[in-house]
Structures are given as structure tokens and as C-alpha cells.
Amino acid sequence: MLDKYINKLRFFLKFFFTDEETDAIVYDYKELIYEKKMSGETDEQIILGIGKISENIKKIIHENHYFNPRLLLHNNYFTVLVVFLLRFLIERLFISTYEDYRNIIYIYCLLSNILFSFVTYYLIRGNPFNINIFLKNTVCVTIPYCMVLIILTMTLFIILFSFPMNFIDLYQKYFDNLFQILHIAGYIIGLAVLVSFKDRTVATLLTIIIGGFSTFVFFILSQVHIINQTSNIIFYKYISLLFVINLCFILVCVFLRDKKIYEHAV
Amino acid sequence: MNTQFKKGILEMCILHLLSEEDLYGYMIIKKIQSLFDNTDESTIYAILRRLNSLGLTDLYYKDSSDGPKRKYYSINKKGLQYLNNYIMNAKELYNILSKLGIKF
What we know:
The structure holds 2 protein chains of 2 kinds.
Chain A: H1 2-13, H2 19-38, H3 43-50, H4 53-64, H5 69-73, H6 76-97, H7 102-123, H8 131-162, H9 165-170, H10 172-196, H11 200-228, H12 232-265
Helix pairs in contact in A: 1-2, 1-4, 6-7, 6-10, 7-11, 8-10, 8-12, 10-11, 10-12, 11-12
Chain B: H1 3-20, E1 23-24, H2 25-35, H3 41-53, E2 57-62, E3 70-75, H4 77-99
Antiparallel strand pairs in B: 1-3, 2-3
């Protein structure tokens, strides 16, 4: 009962505080609970005395802050959103400005994937093992993002294999945009995995592999496409395939993570 | 008592307690709660963390007989200077209010 209380407290604190701050606060609460227990209070009495988690969170925020922008930066979900927006804006800006230099832009994507992975790692590093956090992250973050990617990938497949060539020619620019969305969706899932992963170092490496690999392959494919002047349909088939591979990569990561949690829980 | 005013007083009291001996969180809570009714544990812990982040106190962990390690706080040189400053300000405030004729 008390463990559940502490886990919940930790989960919500992480939305507002850095990992170090969260650990310090949780340690204090653990000490308080222990001392109250030693003085003969029951679990129910202790929880009643400490108060509701939501009220405690409000109190802690009020007592510790003043508005601190650093807090927002340390919020996992906010970080993911910022990284997503940054990547989207920068890539769109580059592609719309330098249409003729797409290949260079894709090299940039490769480098930025690696850079952003490191930046994100430092921003959201460290998250003590907690099954509740993982379950909530899986339900609230990973699964929805995976669903988005699956839906988008399936849509692309259906469009590519159902419509005649002239349709694709007509909407080539539209597909470019769709690719961008897919690319970003893939990246978000990488980040989502990163956020909910227990071992951040492994997660970072996986994100780099996923993001970097997809961009690199896309760059190679675009080169092949230009050299061989292959038809758009083949080109986009490759791209679709790449995203399916990307998706599989991520699902394997999620599976491995959940397996680890399961083994630990057992 | 006004919250901000009380926080300032609590800071001074905690630093004073620590100037006498090293204490762990719950011990400080008990001492403070005996002086100030309805003082929340989270308020005291927040002050302790703040004092520590300001570099006024030092932290160390000590084994307890049957439980998790206790987090002990000790006042350092900077903390003592801060406390002396606090006391001087409090005295000054007391003198000003006394001159105004406010009786305590």
C-alpha cells in the first residue's frame, strides 16, 4: 500500500522535477513513512496523515517553485514534443528552401538524428526502475505512437499499391510530405521508447540506430533513385519497406523492454 | 502566520537547530512541530532541500539501527554566516518595531 503510494508519488513528481530532485523528495517521504511506522502508525494512518498524492504534489510544487523553466525541460513529454517540433520545422525549412539539394538534407537528417538522440538522452536521462511508470508510459506513449506509425505505414502501402501511376505522379509532392510525416512518426516512436526505457544508454543507442539507419538508408535509396532513374513507385516501395523495418525495430525494442520488466516483476 | 514570513522564520529556526547538532529530517520535523503547530512535513522537507541546494548545509548518510539510512543535515560555514545575518536582521526588525511602540 505504501509502496504503491510512493510509486505513484514518484510517477507524478517526474512530470515536474528533475530525476535528482524527484529522488531527493521521494527519499524524504520514505524516511517520513518509515519514522511514522516506527512510532506505531498503521499504513492507513500514515497515508491519511501524509495526505492525498495530488494535494502533496501541489504542495511540493508550491513549496519548491516559483516558475522554473528548467522543469519544463526535464519533463519527458515536453522534451519529446520539443524535439519533434524542432526536427519538423528545421527539416521542412531545409526541404522547401533547397529542393534541389535533397541529398544533402538527408545527410543532415542522419547527423541530426544522432545529435538529437544525444541531446534527448541528456535531457531525460535516468529513471529508476518502476513498473507503474513503464506500464503508464507503454499505455500512454509507446502504444499510441506505434499505432500512429502502423496506421500511417498501412495507409502508405494501400495508396501505393492501389492507385495508378498517374495518381502518384500527380501527388508526388504530397507523398514527399507523407514521407516526412512517417519519418517524424518513426523518430517519435524512437523517442517514446527512449522515454520509457529502463536502460537509457541502450535506449539511446537503439534510437541512434533506428533514426540514423533509416535516414542513411533513405539517403542511399535516393542516390540509387537518381542514378538509375527508377520509377517513383519502386522508390516509394523501398521507402515503405524501410518504415516497416523501422517499425519492427521499434516493436522489438518495446518487446525486449517489456520482457525485462516482466522478468523483473516475476 | 503569513506563509512567506513563516518560511523565513522556519529557515532561521532550522539553521539554528543545526548549529547546535546534526539532525535528520524527521527529528527536525518533530522539533519544529513542537514550536509551530500545523507545520506540514512537506514544508520542512522543502526548506531542508532548499537550504542544501543553496549550499548552507551539508548532507551525509548514517545507518539507523533497523531501517534505511538516515539523511543527516549539518550546517556549514556559509550556513552559519547566513544564520548570523538572519539573526542580525531579526534583531534589527525587533528594534525598529519596539521603537514604533509595538509590544511583543
